[in-house]
Amino acid sequence: MKALNISDEARRLGIFVALTEVVNVTVRHSDHALDEIISKIEEKYKIQDPESLKNDPVVRAYRDFYWRIGIDPTKVRPSGEALRRRVARGSKFPRINTVVDIGNIASIETLVPIGLYDRDKIAGNLHIVLSSGNEQFLGLGGKNIEKLDKGIPILIDDEGKVLHIYPHRDSILTSITLETKNVVIVGAGVPNVDKTLVKRAVDFVVDLLEKITGGKREYETLVIT
């Protein structure tokens, strides 16, 4: 079990998380049952006006947090909003592998950003802190290592590796691959988002992981503030 600590500085930004772990998953490229779920999601959201999303209170809460940490949410969308907009504009739901797809399903349905991390690539426990400056980060899909500015909320492990820029970018270091067996699930909470919604988003992921990947929940979802 991985403990997660939120520093006082990060807590003052209103950051909280929902956390649990699922063990002994089997990750595959795709799954027929998951294909059917995703097809229904595409049908459900392709008729939504993407511009109506800005009026959703959950979207507004994440957008407000983005502005607060210096990110323009009209250029870098919160993950759930980005997925809804993608489908509403006629594009297909993005497919990576069964575990990542399940996280994205939970995010598009709840609008809560979901982080999924290969537990066996994490050194020790987890910490949400504000960057001191010059930390190195290699994001998913990125080719170049970035040096972070000071004061950015980040998720690190006991070795100080930056695993996530909160709440919108994951590192390649702990990414989910076909070899992953154990998954840490983190639902990203911000001010004015109900804690029960973030917990429900994480539980949504767990339920599908157990059904689709054969994994097993290791403990009840914790809400950490």
Automatic annotation (TrEMBL):
<feature type="domain" description="B3/B4 tRNA-binding">
    <location>
        <begin position="61"/>
        <end position="214"/>
    </location>
</feature>
<protein>
    <recommendedName>
        <fullName>B3/B4 tRNA-binding domain-containing protein</fullName>
    </recommendedName>
</protein>
<dbReference type="InterPro" id="IPR020825">
    <property type="entry name" value="Phe-tRNA_synthase-like_B3/B4"/>
</dbReference>
<dbReference type="InterPro" id="IPR005146">
    <property type="entry name" value="B3/B4_tRNA-bd"/>
</dbReference>
<dbReference type="GO" id="GO:0003723">
    <property type="term" value="F:RNA binding"/>
</dbReference>
<dbReference type="GO" id="GO:0004826">
    <property type="term" value="F:phenylalanine-tRNA ligase activity"/>
</dbReference>
<dbReference type="Pfam" id="PF03483">
    <property type="entry name" value="B3_4"/>
</dbReference>
